Amino acid sequence: MNLEDLYSLLFDIYGDLKWWPAETKEEVVIGAILTQNTTWRNVEKAIDNLKNKGICSLKGILFSEKDIVKEAIRSAGFYNQKYTYLKNISDAIVREGGIEILKNYSTDDLHKFFSSIKGVGKETEDSIILYVFERKAFVDDKYTRRIFSRLGITNTEGKKLPDHVIECAEREFNVEQLKNLHAMIVYLGKDICKSKPDCNRCPLKNDCETGINNLLK
DNA sequence: AACCAGGAGAGAG
DNA sequence: CTCTCTCATGGT
């Protein structure tokens, strides 16, 4: 089995999940910050609060009272930090001319731009580049590491994936596949791969235990 | 009632 | 460069 086989295996289970769930690109940016180490359920409440106040946008974040925004995003946890992070990224994007202007940037320049913002780490950066700007990026999150490790693809649970794995994925898949791959991995992670493996409930069943060899060669 | 969630940054070694 | 700690709410 290789990466493509893993993709079709997951696709048979989940299909096209149509990620990232959001009404606008700015909402994706906001959600990407809010979901840091937080369940999407709690992020949804925060985004609904922002929408109800009519401030679920970069300028909405920038030009609203601090306490109003903090109260709205409280359910997503770490709200003091995340408020600062949201202001940082909103300010940076708006000052650059907005998302439409950034679409003209090369993928490398987008990486440089976002990685320089305090509050935007590797995963958030890649998520935004993939889902907002629709450029190739492999999102290496906790679920990916756990599942790849459990499948025998890597033995790096808790650590970031090796560069050659990420390069392989970005070479073999197009943007739409990379979008759905990350979505499916998150779904699989939510379904079964919590703290302990439960291969009876896992949709991958035996493929998980037997491991995947010669994945990258 | 401990444990963890679609992380990131600061600080220490 | 790689650990470790902190940030904080809400569901199981």
The run of helices and strands is HHHHHHHHHHHHH
Q: How many beta-strand runs?
A: 0
Q: What does the average pLDDT come to?
A: 89
Low-confidence parts, pLDDT < 50 over ≥5 residues? Answer: 211-217
Care to describe what's here?
It is a single chain. The chain has 217 residues and is mostly helical. It contains 13 helices and no strands. It has helices spanning 3-14, 25-34, 40-52, 58-62, 66-73, 79-96, 99-102, 107-115, 122-131, 142-151, 163-172, 175-191, 206-210. Helix 1 packs across helix 12 (175-191) and helix 8 packs across helix 9. The longest helix is centred in the middle third of the chain and has 18 residues, at 79-96. The N and C termini lie close together (12 Å). It binds a DNA duplex (13 and 12 nucleotides) through residues 31-33, 35-43, 45, 74-82, 85, 118-124, 127, 139, 141-144, 159, 182-183, 185-186, 189-190, 194-195.
Per-chain topology:
Layout: H1 3-14, H2 25-34, H3 40-52, H4 58-62, H5 66-73, H6 79-96, H7 99-102, H8 107-115, H9 122-131, H10 142-151, H11 163-172, H12 175-191, H13 206-210
This protein binds a DNA duplex (13 and 12 nucleotides) through helix 2, helix 3, helix 6, helix 9 and helix 10.
